[in-house]
TrEMBL record:
Binding-site residues, glyoxylate: 25, 165, 276, 279
Cofactor(s) required, per the database record: FMN
Gene that specifies this protein: lldD_2
Domain FMN hydroxy acid dehydrogenase positions: 1-381
Stated name of the protein: L-lactate dehydrogenase [cytochrome]
GO molecular function, one term: L-lactate dehydrogenase (cytochrome) activity
Gene source species: Pseudoruegeria aquimaris
Length: 387
């Protein structure tokens, strides 16, 4: 039995246990994957200041995000198709987050529906919406999130057109997988996954099939998604969507200070500085490099959250020290989910919490709320001088 000490351990088990098609779906970025890679390598360029002889007893990572108190400044990011990484994946991940005391964000493109996740959890979760053309569907989706008592809406604004991930095309990604000879051969070696899938009814996009007009099965879904995203999205439409929800609204996918200011103008309560985990515009800045200029632009006026590239508690600490109120983890929890279901997501959260707590202590801080830029050594040219 492998002793799990880091997120990378979970990734290795995940790779062995989940069909290649779904592993590749998570573990790739768009085109050359430059941005995907730099999301993690740029974190390593920032160093931490070791301090000694500071009182490190009685530490706390508890913090506030969107007016609520949480165990640490980490939320589970919206990730599509979690129910293909592990049977009933969204329910499993939501339960792990709830028990740990961090927010769970359900993706529009989930396998388990909003209602299903609400039924199997106790506490409210966040719901992510894509900006889709079908206004009627959008209104009903947001009304469903309200009925399910979701506590915040995350509007993803960086996917008007979809980035290309070569492997998804080559693998013929679909949910559930099509029974091609290669897929059958692969699944035969992933017996845990197959057993779980055989025992669940949840194998289609639960928020869409039976809810979007004309989508009653997997075949009609693929033509719907190809058409669904609103390529003409503008700030006026974002404001309209913002006004459809009377609770906190988070705009996710901001990478530029000018866009951050616009987000503030349309009344967003928070933004997530994000490049979608390197899955959209390849060649864009890594998220951590983009964070400082966005903090300068709006950091004192709204909550700025951060994602893309977090693989450890040290990464969380660095983002927090640069000013982020909270962070989101995507792949780091997906590895846990694919490796070991709910237990694996809990393990991922435990690993990150331990790394965060220990690193914070060794930087001479005992309360996450006292962590600031002072604990970091950031290269002078970190943000880069771009013309
Ligand atoms: C497999 C996968 C599916 C994703 N699906 C969605 C989604 O449905 N909606 C969304 O807003 N973001 C989605 N994202 C982006 C994540 O919310 C998040 O921005 C990203 O994973 C952060 O980068 P990280 O994986 O390096 O932590 C997805 C990411 C991955 C890896």
């Amino acid at each position: 039995m492998t002793v799990i000490t880091e997120i990378e351990d979970l990734r290795r088990i995940y790779k062995r246990r989940v069909p290649k098609m779904f592993y590749d779906y998570a573990e790739t970025g768009s085109w050359t994957q430059q941005t995907f890679r730099e999301n993690t390598t740029d974190f390593a360029k920032i160093r931490l200041r070791q301090r000694i002889a500071k009182d490190m007893a009685g530490r706390s990572t508890r913090c506030r995000m969107l007016g609520e108190e949480w165990a640490m400044p980490v939320a589970l990011a919206p990730v599509g198709l979690c129910g293909m990484q592990h049977a009933d994946g969204e329910i499993k991940a939501a339960r792990a987050a709830e028990k740990f005391g961090v927010p769970f964000t359900l993706s529009t493109m989930s396998i388990c529906s909003i209602e299903d996740v609400a039924e199997h959890t106790e506490k409210p979760f966040w719901f992510q919406v894509y900006t889709l053309k079908d206004d009627d569907f959008m209104r009903r989706l947001i009304a469903r999130a309200k009925d399910a008592k979701c506590s915040a809406i995350v509007i993803t604004v960086d996917l008007q057109v979809m980035g290309q991930r070569h492997k998804d095309l080559k693998n013929g990604l679909s949910a559930p997988p099509k029974p091609t000879p290669a897929a059958i051969l692969d699944v035969m070696t992933k017996w845990r996954w197959a057993l779980g899938m055989a025992q669940t009814k949840r194998r289609f996009f639960g928020n869409i099939v039976g809810h979007a007009k004309g989508v009653s099965n997997a075949a009609s879904l693929s033509s719907w998604t190809a058409e669904a995203f609103d390529q003409s999205l503008d700030w006026e439409r974002i404001k309209e969507l913002r006004d459809m929800w009377d609770g906190p609204v988070i705009l996710k996918g901001i990478l530029d200070a000018e866009d951050a200011k616009q987000a503030l103008n349309v009344g967003a309560d928070a933004i997530v500085v994000s490049n979608h985990g390197g899955r959209q515009l390849d060649g864009a800045l890594s998220s951590i490099r983009a964070l400082p200029s966005i903090m300068d632009a709006v950091g004192d006026k709204m909550e700025v959250h951060f994602d893309s590239g977090i693989r450890s508690g040290q990464d969380v600490l660095k983002a927090r020290a640069l000013g982020a109120t909270g962070t989101m983890i995507g792949r780091a929890f997906v590895y846990g989910l694919g490796a070991m279901g709910e237990e694996g997501v809990t393990k991922a959260l435990e690993v990150i919490h331990k790394e965060l707590d220990t690193s914070m202590a060794l930087c001479g801080k005992r309360d996450i709320n006292d962590v600031d830029r002072d604990i970091l050594l950031v290269p002078e040219d970190f943000e880069g001088r771009w013309a």
